[in-house]
Amino acid sequence: MNFKRLLSALLICMCIVPATTMAQTGSTAPADREYTLEATMLGYMATDGTRNPILKAHKGDRVRINLVNGETMTHDITMEKLGIKSKVLVEKGSKTSITFVAQNNDTYFCSIPGHRAAGMVGSFEVVEGPIENIVTIKGQLPQKNGKPLNLNFETGTLQDWTAKGDAFKDPIIAQDPSPMHEANMRIGIAGRFFLSSGGTKNHKLTGTLTSVPFKVTQPYAAFRVSGGALHDTRVELVRADNDSVFFQITGSGRATLQPVVVDLQKLKGKDMYIRLVDNETGISQIPYIRNDVMAHINFDDFLFYTERPNFPNELKQEDIIILPPLDVVKYAGLSGDSAAKVMTVPAGFKVTLAASEPQIIKPIAFCMDWRGRLWVVESHTYPVRAPEGQGRDKIFIFEDTNGDGTLDKKTVFMEGLNLVSGIEVNTTGVYVGAAPYLLFIPLDIKTDKPAGPVQTLLDGWGLEDTHETLNGFQWGPDGWLYGTQGVFTQSSVGAPGTPDSLRVKLNACVWRYHPVTKKFEVFAEGTSNPWGIDFNDYGHAFVSACVIPHLYNIFPGGRYTRQWGPHANPYTYIDITTMADHVHWIGERGPHAGNFRSGPVGGGHAHAGAMVYLGSENWPAEYRSDLFMNNIHGARVNNDHLIRKGSGYLGTHAPDFLMANDTWSQWLNFRYDASGSVWAIDWYDKNQCHSPNPDVHNKVLGRIFRISNDKDKWVQVDLSKATDMELVNYQLNKNDWYVRQARLILEMRGPNKKVHNALKKILNDNPDDTRKLRALWALHATQGTNEKDLIKLLSNQSEYIRAWAVQLISEGRNASDKAMDKFADMAKSDTSALVRLYLAGAMQRTQSAKRWDVAEALYKHAEDAEDHNLPVMVWYAFEPLVPLDINRAINIAMQAQLPNALKFTVQRIGAMDTPESKKALSDLAARIEKSEHAHHMMDVTDLIHKLLEAPEAKK
């Protein structure tokens, strides 16, 4: 999707008609005040260039807001307090409106999920008196040799200017609408003439235009500019004595001239000149994105001012998203064979087309079974759930029977499913995410057919945004089924019939479900719309996200940066930020601005799929334990190195692993197989962003690819036929595909004493931490451990074993007093930041009254003050203790060696708003003032005073 800034129109009409009390959409009755705005992802645009303008009316006025869609994308307009919204627009140029009676101030915004957060929001104000624009002071033309310079082009010539290149050969325009611009573009000329480097008609021309030098005689200047928000379409103000640029600004991506104010106070008395630069052709390398016709610069009316002028539509640099050149992507809309051939992979690798339309259409999710077969969901219902019983989604089993990389065998498992978004399989059945349900389909592994009717395990998954429902299914090392859900869908999950009060409320999160115990829970909260989760050799989880920074190390109880909305716990106060040291978009103006223009850093903000490669050792060692994710707007597979740092990891950007070189490429997930090769599903589509409109998405395309190393050797295997001891031995395999599948089969076979003894031997005797962990996970999944065994592991020399023992003990939320005593000792003396992190996570699963000793000890580790996770996670563990014993909490916070402990404790006490809490804060303020360290805690005392003096600030 290409977010282009287009023209808008602001019409203010005053027609006296009787007011009505009705709020309407699409009304054509006369209005007292009428506005027309254009909607783009960059905001609502007015004709004078103002972004998200303040719309004004008198109380009782009948107001109409017309909306014009500025791009082929879903938009609407909603009045927040009135609770009315327009119909949803999809096509560029489509229109709608809302009509209402002005009574109170309100907020208008786009209700499409994510659009308000991206900046589509403005204010509506009910005012008294005249509604009029600000009148600014009059400016004056700069002079040279006693004569005004032609810096407003009112001579109709290029007098006082020198042109180079083609763009400024015939630049003076005296009409509005301009003959050099598209017919619907209003320029807003200040006088008789303005200048353009070709307009939209000749945007491919390039060149520069430079004024004669002149002396700065006033403290301020202003000029009008419009055109491309591109680095190479800009106005430069240059010092004449050293030719240094002291101010520059681009256009804003629209045609309407807007005033720019420049402070010249430090340059008064010096000579300067103006240089207009247009080195941008606007020629698009992406087939389905048209040339950027705004690749030009419009300029007019450079004037000096005796004081700073005020303009209601002033253009400021912070309002402009300056874009680099478009990425070069050669192809689009290719056949499956051609798409595979044009992909670029490292030396020694190849891409094979495994299946394409009509063999597979719209693959939205897939998984792999114990035979290396692909279970693929073909999505025909998305994005709108069909009426009950009318679902059209299908599940197929694909198999490569001869090792040539093509899926030559296809078996239909089930049809008639509805809005499927996730799938996983084990030897007992298939787990299917189909909001509002998590389903289970019993499986006969001998016939590959359902062994019974579809079962509803859970219901209550939300449908607000069908792109952000339950997805990304992946078996965890601990035997749980993990998945993700996005931020704009609100779910209330439980087994069918569960009362609302007992349901799990969730939106953005990683959740998990246990196939044996049937338990469901939120594992960690936050991020945006993650569409992929995977685990490394140490069982640590990672997700890829969209819009916000893309990479997160997920651990129990973590609360992560959210794209939108508050955390479930209102006392969170701080969240865990990305583990990555980079983003995949260009510049500082947000993620959407980087799409299609972020080649050097990874391609754009939208990611799908997450795979930590732990497959064959035939692949170069540099790829093992790296996390691969598809970058949708970048048409490539990003690769991040995962480096242990402190209690967690640092994600650094490695060279992109694969370039699709095809803008329609949309890989959604990948998995490695028994040979080490990687399989990927491709939702192949011209449209690169989800939409609730089914017609926006292509309905007949889809691909599956295999990426293999030249050394990969095809194998045929069926682990369901392996003996228990063979499955135990697979826990030592170098390829984690065998490890995971064997562990899953053992879990489904249930407890087995011989299996447990063999796994305990690996746990006790194998020198490799990763093999010990595999044995521990398999023991846990097969019910082969108890708390007594796990308490012994708390003294293991491996920090990974100790951390996992902490997690497994606390999994049932009922750790014994003996375990809690050991936790407290570890919190004091364990040398591993990783172990301390898992202790902090375990406390969130522990009764609050039992946490004191562990939380207090964790707060005393000064070495964790700069850790990425621990200061945050320890607060999450400590926060519920504050209302239990305010004074004890204060004493702990006063001695804490981790940042924000005292500040957050004060905030939490203030939120209680009781006589006891107020007295505690007053006493604390007095205590701090008497302390020899009072000057170091001024921010805390200021916070206390604010909480005591301003009750409304407590929350």
Automatic annotation (TrEMBL):
Signal peptide: 1-23
Classification via InterPro entries: 6-blade_b-propeller_TolB-like, ARM-like, ARM-type_fold, BlueCu_1, Cupredoxin, DUF7133, Membrane-bound_put_N, Quinoprot_gluc/sorb_DH_b-prop
Occurrences of domain DUF7133 (ranges): 338-709
NCBIfam families linked: Piru_Ver_Nterm
This protein's UniProt keywords: Copper, Metal-binding, Signal
Keyword Metal-binding: yes
CDD domains (alphabetical): Cupredoxin
Organism: Mucilaginibacter limnophilus
Name assigned to this protein: Dehydrogenase
Gene3D superfamilies: Cupredoxins - blue copper proteins, Leucine-rich Repeat Variant, TolB, C-terminal domain
GO terms assigned for molecular function: copper ion binding; electron transfer activity
Domain Blue (type 1) copper, residue spans: 79-126
